[in-house]
Structures are given as C-alpha cells and as structure tokens.
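Batch manifest, entry 17 of 40.
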Amino acid sequence: MRRRTHFEESYTVNPQKVRTYLYEKGFVTDEEERASLLLKASEEFDVPIEGIETSFWADREDFQIVASIDDISASDLVRYYNLSLTQTLLFDALSLEFTTSGNYQEIFRMIKFLGLMYEIQSEGDNFSVRVTGPASLFKKTKKYGTSLAKLVPKIMKAPSWKIKAQIETEVAGEPRIYIFELSDSKKEFFPDVLEDTEQFDSAVEEHFVKRFSSLRKDWEIKREPTILKAGLSVMIPDFSLERRGKRCYVEIVGFWTPEYIEKKIKKIQNLNQKILLCVNKELQCTRRDFKENADVILYDKEVPMKPVLERIRKIELEQLQEEKGKLSLTDIELTEDVTLLRNIAQVHNVGVETAKEILQTSDTGIVVGDTFVKNSVLEEIQKRLENLEDMRLSSVKKVLDEYSLNEDVLGKLGYDIEWKSLDAENAVVKRRSESDR
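Output type: structure tokens
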C-alpha cells in the first residue's frame, strides 16, 4: 500500500531557512530557552510558532504528508500482496522451472537481462525451462533468487503457465530444500497482468501478417508462438501458420549486424526441424548458409506471398492425404437431404476439402458448391423445374431457396442461365440440349 501512496512536502516557511536561522543561534538547554528561540524565529519569519515547528523538518521524507492514494480495491490489494509473497519466497530459490504457452520473447529477454542461465528440456512438442543463477553453482546467494523473483511476472503474462522452484530454508537449524509449485489454475489469487499492445519489430513483419491474414483466412497466424530447441540455445520464431494441428514456422530476417546474422545462422543450423526463412536480399548470406534446415525466401522490400502460399499448399496436400487415410465414405453418416460440408468436416475433425473429395465418390448424391445434396432431392427439384411455367431466374431461385440451395445446382441438373442484362429479373433458366449435356 505504501507504494501506491503519494506524499508531498507541506510547510509555511522554507525548512532549510528555518533550520539555518535556529542553528546559528546556538543550542538550547531547557524548554524556556527553546520557547524563546522559537518566538524570535516566529517574529523573524512573521508566522506563528506552530508554523516554525511544523516547517522545521517538513522537507524530510518522514515528515511528508499523504497527498493522494491510488485507487485500488481490497481484493486487488490482496492479489498484489500474494504476488509479493511469491516473489519474496523465491529470494531463497536455488532454481526455477517453468512452462508457458506464450510470451517467450519477453521471458527470454528478461532471463538474458538478469544474467541467468537456462536449460531447455523437451518432450515432444512440450518444453520446460530450468533457470539458475551462475553463482548458485558454487554457493548460496540471494542475488540470483531476487532475479528469479523478477522473472515471475513475465511468466504470469502468458495465457497458461506453471512454475516449480527449489526453496532452501532452515528447520531447527538444519538446511532443508522444499519444492514450491504454482500454476495459472490459481491465477484468480494474483493480479491481472495486462498484455502489451502488439508491436511488430518492423514494417515488413506487420505487412506480412496483414497480407497473409487477408489471403488465407482458414489459416491462423500466431506471433512468437513457441520456443524451438537449437542446440544448447533456443530460438523463438517470429510466426507460426497453423491449421488443424499442422503448422509452419516463419522467421523474417531483416537488416542487422554481422554478429546477429552469424548467431541466427548458427541457431537455424542447430534446429531439429525445418523453418520457413524470409531473408533480406541486402544481407551477406545465401541459401547455402542455412544448410537443410530452412526453406529460404529472399525478399526486397516485403516478403513475397507466392512462395509462402506454395509452402502452405504443400502442407495442405499432405494433410489432405493424411485425413483421407483416416476417414472413409462409410464413416460419414448423412441423415439430412442437404448437408453443409463444413458440418461434416467439423464432426470428423477434417478439412472441408477432405469431406468434399470423399463425398464426390458417393453414389447417393453429389457435391454442389459447399453442400452435399442427395439424389432424391435432385430428382424432386428436377420435376418441379420441368413443371414450372415461369423460368425466369427469380422464380427458379424461389424453388431452390426451399432446399437452401443456390443456382450452382442448376448446372448439375443440366440447366444454364441466360443473362440478358445484370438484372436477375431478365435472366432466364434454360435446359441444355441433349448434345450439350
């Protein structure tokens, strides 16, 4: 609460002038001499004696008065107190292990700033990080425990997190080591750590996100999504492009110092997986510098989308084959006369294109646009159109609307739309001749 309380000086006479005046008069030995001296000061500065006494030390911190207090609720105050208790406990930590689901860049930037050592442990796609202080290898010191405590708020900024620390203390004069564990399941007891407004390292990165998101809305783009093990170090890719469990990591390398490029190349060479690397043409490096661990795209002012989309398309084709191997036509239950492909895809956790390719082999119906239509419905629509006197497109669409279908189905039924103008009222639906079907 003291940190949220703001103090200010309050006096009627400048404290330094009052002290100088009284000290120059010499010391006093009793209350009578003191009262006499205060009276003289009162007359000198033309203020009451009380004003002289309150002004004497008014510029010192202990005598300042409360000016304002930050607005904070009792529950929020307790949450900040809990965070302080946790950090104080970590002052005696020998090491700290953590896992998070984000905020990697900021966490590792802080680890480096605090001069801590870390070790990455991986199990499949899951990573845990063990952080220690260099001096803790040789002797117990609170210096690095304090640094570990400063790291905690950065970890807590991630959407999900878990920490585990070794805490050294004494019990009955004997040293003991206890294990302290905490996770985001207890986040209600801690303050909400506001996320920073997303800031890109360069205009190239910002443009890349905007252009890719507008071109491929079925893919999700995440910034600084995870940590990748690169030998004894780690690499945090700029982006990941993700869709239904498949992902492609993207790193954009702009113009930096030769030392930066050298370190970047070394990290990428030590990666245990491929990465899509977009490299500024002005840099003094080539595709060969990155060995086989990167698909390299050279760019000038902005990252070209065509090679990125080609890489994405390869992943899509691989995913399509995998999903077709897991799903067959007999697995798909079609109870509705007209079924949206996206509903089928959602039920079976596959892509719309997978559902479409499998259903195209069905003999019970056909795929029309983004729907599967049973043959019985097609026959019913065919009969209604044959008996329809008004074949204007607007009239035909009323029939199709009853089945939640659009004019795409007309081509499957052997009909064409003859447009005489842009007005749908003037468009006529005509049956193709036998030779054109």
